[in-house]
Sequence to fold (1049 residues):
Amino acid sequence: MKFSEKQIKLILLMLSAIVVFLIPVFIKNQGYIQIFIVVMFFMYIATAWNFVGGFAGVLPLGNAAFIAIGAYTSTILFVQYGISPWVGMLAGGIISAIIGIIIGLPTFKLRGAYFALATIAFGEGIKVLFQNIDKIGSVNVGGARGILISYSGDSFANFQWVSRIPYYYIILVMLIILLAITVFLMNSKMGYYLIAGGEDPEAAASLGVNVAKYKLIAMALSAFFTAIAGTFYAQWILYILPKSVGSIDLSFEIAFIAIIGGRGTIIGPILGALLLKPLGELTRTYLGGALPGLHLFILGLILVLVMIYQPRGIQEVLTKIFNRFVKKMVTIKRS
Amino acid sequence: MGSAILNGILMGSIYGLTAVGLTLIFGVLKVINFAQGAFLMSGLFATYWFVKFTGTNPYLALVVVVPFTYFMGYYIQKFLIKPVFESEKDVREPIGVIIVTTGIWYMLDNLALMLFGAQYRTINVPSVSKAISIFGLYAPLSKIIGFFISITVSGLLFWFLKYSKMGKAIRATSQDREAASLMGINQYKIYNVTFGIGTAICGIAGAVLLPFYYVYPTVGMHLDIMDFVIVVLGGLGSIPGALVGGLIIGLIESVGSQFIAYSWTIEVIYIIFLIILFVKPSGLFGVKGEF
Amino acid sequence: MCKLNWFKFSFSLMLFFFVTLFSGAFVNSANAQKKEVVIGNILPLSGPSASAGVEGKKMREFIVKQFNANGGFECKGELNGAKIKMIYLDTKSNPTVGVTDVQQLINGDNVDLITGAWNSGVTYPASQVAEMHKVPFVVPVSVMDRITGRGFKYLFRIAAKDSWWTRDQFRFIDYLAKKTNKKIKTLGLVYINNDFGKSFDDSWLKLAKQHGYKVILNESYAETATDLTPVVLKIKSAKPQILLVVSDAADAILLQNTMANYDVRPWAVISSGGGQADPAFIKNTGKNADYLFDMSEWAPDMNKPGLKELNKKFKKAYGIDVNGETMDAYVGMHTIIAVLKKTCSTNPDKFRKEMLRSKLSTGPFTVMSYPYVKFDKDGQNVDAGLILVQVRKVGNKYERVTVWPEEDARAGFKVVFPQPNHY
Fold:
């Protein structure tokens, strides 16, 4: 039998997809499932960040605001009006996309550092807003108290389960859909325009590409998908607090994961989350109790080292190794 | 009300001082230094330990704190930031440096946590902490001293950049890297020195803050975002701009809070910040075309 | 670049697969032994509340070490001879991390029960996860009202809830007025804008109405505030007679020092056991905190049998005195141990039954400020009592001196109200 490189890669993809889907069947320990969910959650939000942060070539540092908007929209609708979080998820996504466009219109005129700072201010501004508003009319926002979603039994309509396994599959499916959309978009006209606009806006504009329009579309998509993750978060943790869903730490973490992995590549956010999150969990669990601060120190060190030695993120070197591996497989089969 | 305005001006000038280092580093290296808060924390801790060990005045600590923070900045730039700079030379939007400074921020904060523990520390200097009356308005002497130090340091820095040889080299580099290096200026040397000066100013700000503030490992975080707002308000890279930006923030916080709840003033600050960014992104004193 | 992406994706999935294999190997080796009681502790070991978490951890270690050295459980049943194994996880004061911790403890480490989490904002969602899995959750510290009363069966709170704290604060204000024959009319409320401060403020506003006081200042400040002078100036111009305060940590120091520097002295300042209870507070305010009232569940100067000896041993082992923070951990651990001794089983339903039946008052429980630990059907410790301490100069140092209720007051000390040189 003879396989081409492409076929081998396809087979590997299928194999790993099967494995990922079967993980909950083999691993009964829900603590590990929880870690997988954390990892996939960050893969997802970092991929959504990548629309703007990677392909459009700017540095947004306020994406937690969209998570907060998504989480609050669906939670308020669910807790106060009994509307299923699945509907709320969509509503939150749409509201978030609209806000994304509104905020994107002026911010995309800014460049580099100014864009990053504007998004920080936007993110913090949204958090402070949620912290200070108790009520809008009869709508209870909860202010700094946060909102608890009470557990009322396993239910698909209510997006609640004791077991972690449904959450595992939901975030997995969300991730796959988002990746598929990313791959599709990046191979479309829009993807090329977006990347061209990100790399050299003047040149792209002179070729007649409406850079601003594509950036706005990217922003809307990014905001929409990030907000959906917010709803997932709310139903998964069952408690939202401005400090936890809207924090600047979260905004930074999203960006770091994508950048360490390799921004502007589809695989980057995936690899970034795969490296940083389990590492973070392990160091926090095993070292955090003994020497508080060590785990974050190590994170800082990794950021510095990766940026010095692998400025394009770890995807570059890993992809090379992978391609070499595939090539070898091809030659083995042939001989 | 008068005291609130006075407090706003004094605090504003001190906020301005904490932001001067940030704006200087941006002006020359075109990098937002996210480790700014961590450098402030280092300055605060350095002052704290100096006062603890010698039992003297925090303002005397400047003798030790300024060289310490200067060399800290100098070598951090030389060994950690420069390599990224070089590898990103041709990149249009260099963000690697931002990430590196963030990494440095995490490292410094948590190093302090491991070395000194999480507790809050203050120094007690009764001679300067009491509020005194000036024409019927009240303010603690420590803040008044802080105000004068802020003005003096910014003035000196301004003068240094304008008239000294090194200052001229720094300005040349900030305006045109290539031209400056063609004229025989060692670009990276200038960066090291600028970074050193920027962090040394954080050290000074630490000595100014400590008498009425406190220090713990993540104390810089609160001032970090505030400083970003200040430098953009004033215009990234502009030293008088940082002071004016600081004054605006200080006044909104202090005077605004006499009319609305204090926890809302920060929202007002963000909104004004965003409006300025959208309407006049170069800030009040910024150079056009850099944003 | 884009053509390769599918393949990169597949590569990452492969990596994922390997990680899984490794973790799977861990799982199988994890549950080998079962002659011990595994207790999960979630505490803020880094981040803003780290000092409280670290102190509580020390006391827990102290108790468990002693308990295991003495041979562990001696009882008739499955636990006979079993020792206690403690697992500590850091919450960083972050609810998300706390919930993840509980998931990890229950599903990964198979803990028999959980205790923690110090921050109300973490305990609130984290306890729901424990309840969903029917794992008992013992809460020694978090005061937020809403933690109990959710119909949970396996949640037990030893701490008094915040409505009791505020209730007793108002009882104390009434007491002050009656005792000194001063007319108290106006109140000022200042709180940190988070879940802790907000829930106190809610009940203060209600109580002020009931008790007939006028709230003339109701001010919150952000957790990230760097300068509290504006708040102090507002207090100065409003001049409330009594100032009620909730602060979290460093802000307590900043507020107290700024008030002293601006000579803002109401008749009395009454704080709520947050940042003011941290030992760092007195260290960093000293004279500036003179005559401050703080509400507390416990104070070291109470005359309780066995306390001196406990303090001596603990100080020898860890170099710090027993304080409110460590005492909460102390009562929590001893409650768990006492009840497990009786059930001699880790069955959660037996644990609940015994928790509700017990009234713990002897042995290690004599050093508490209230006579016994007993839970109602909501899992709330029914008579968790509260005391008021006043910061006073003793010798040449400032100390927290118990002044109320009168019967618990330190010998030779009476409430000073209004404070000298008030406005």
Notes: Chain B has one domain: 2-6+16-220. Chain B is about 75% helix and 5% strand. Chain B has a mean pLDDT of 87. The longest helix of chain B spans residues 2-29.
